[in-house]
Design goal:
alpha+beta, transmembrane helix, membrane, 5-stranded antiparallel sheet, 20 strands, 3 domains
């Protein structure tokens, strides 16, 4: 009995020890995880703190630039003393107070300030390198990104009293090196919604549209389709389709359709135009028509010599001026009749009466030309089965 009790006790002791070891392992694991979580939180908190300090340093650079402008002292400056007033701060070497006296020279993760100041082409640039944040003996780009986000989040602008100061903060993804650039040029900043930053080169919108524009001002505008209530251009406007309420432009070139109640400009070029009112110094047509050739609608155009024609009853008919010579005659019988050189000729139409024994095919046309004064060489073709049938025609010349 005694031996059995001893064995039972030993088994119970072994079980208790195993449970104890397991509890110690679980506790150790949980403690390790808690420590890792606390270290990550400390890392993030330290990165945010460094970002806040770096943003304050960036503000000081902007303040320094707005005060000094392009007259700023150039060179390489280490630390923060050059941004502290020597009259106020013991370690200060500057002439104005851009940073508080207690502002630290170093940041977390072995970061520090090294600033190069240059002036070139009327533009002052201050470039500060903080180095790469070191964590557990290695440069850490993730920490660098968090610090840069904090710097860029402090997006304040300085614009007095000498010059505007823009900034951009970034980090190298491979090395983690953080750079802050403050400049009097807008080139290094994103476009701002307040319009204080202007682009210096063309933008490619990659086929995307721009909507909600109140006013569009441009020297030259080239686009596929324009839809607007009012369009004014003092330079040049080129589009394949234009639909607008009012067009006022120096040069308007449209390869498609112009649809507007009013179009005014110095030179207007279009293949198809639908306008209620057109006011222009020069109306340019892309291609010449053939006098007496077919046409449709209410249209005007010019021949190769520049004489104006209008579409009347489906034929291009010369307009403008007063005829100095009017010829009205008839051609009898079958034949191709020479009429001579005229600025224009018209006939009563193209005849094709297919009644048996009474067929007639007749038309008038410009065989060649124009010559120097704009006249064409006109012919009249008349074929009829009855010689008594004739085609009446009228030809004219202008002074």
């Amino acid at each position: 009995m005694r031996l059995s009790s001893v064995c039972s006790f030993k088994k119970q002791k072994g079980a208790i020890e195993a449970i104890g070891y397991a509890m110690i392992l679980v506790f150790s694991t949980l403690t390790w995880l808690w420590i890792q979580q606390q270290m990550e939180q400390f890392k993030d908190s330290a990165a945010d703190q460094s970002g806040v300090y770096a943003a304050q340093f960036k503000h000081a650079l902007q303040s320094k630039l707005t005060q000094d402008g392009v007259g700023i002292t150039t060179g390489t400056f280490t630390g923060t003393a050059w941004l502290k007033d020597s009259a106020t701060c013991t370690a200060g070497t500057g002439t104005l107070q851009h940073l508080p006296c207690a502002f630290p020279d170093n940041l977390n993760f072995d970061l520090s300030y090294s600033t190069v100041v240059t002036v070139s082409g009327g533009i002052a640039t201050l470039t500060t390198s903080l180095g790469a944040p070191m964590y557990r003996g290695q440069a850490n780009s993730s920490i660098a990104g968090r610090i840069v986000s904090a710097i860029n989040g402090a997006n304040s602008a300085y614009s007095t009293p000498v010059t505007q100061a823009y900034f951009v903060a970034s980090h190298d993804m491979s090395t983690g090196v953080i750079t802050i650039t403050v400049t009097s040029s807008a080139n290094l900043d994103y476009l701002r919604p307040d319009g204080t930053v202007l682009p210096t080169a063309d933008f490619n919108w990659n086929g995307n549209g721009i909507t909600g524009i109140d006013n569009l001002s441009s020297n030259t505008l080239s686009t596929t389709t324009i839809n607007t209530s009012s369009l004014t251009a003092t330079g040049s406007l080129n589009s394949s389709s234009l639909s607008t309420g009012t067009v006022s432009t120096g040069t308007l070139s449209v390869t498609g359709t112009v649809s507007a109640p009013s179009v005014s400009g110095t030179t207007i070029t279009a293949t198809n135009s639908t306008n209620t009112t057109t006011s222009t110094t020069n109306l340019t047509f892309r291609s010449a028509i053939t006098p007496n050739g077919g046409c449709s609608g209410r249209a005007i155009n010019v021949d190769s010599s520049g004489r104006v024609y209008s579409c009347v009853s489906g034929r291009w008919t010369s307009v403008g001026g007063t005829p100095s010579v009017v010829v009205s005659n008839g051609a009898r019988g079958t034949g191709n009749h020479v009429l001579g050189y005229f600025h224009g000729c018209s006939a009563s139409g193209h005849y094709n009466n297919s009644n048996s024994g009474d067929r007639m095919n007749a038309y008038i046309y410009a065989a060649s030309g124009p010559i120097s004064d704009g006249r064409y060489y006109w012919r009249l073709y008349n074929y009829s089965e009855r010689s008594s049938q004739q085609l009446r025609y009228t030809c004219w010349r202008y002074q």
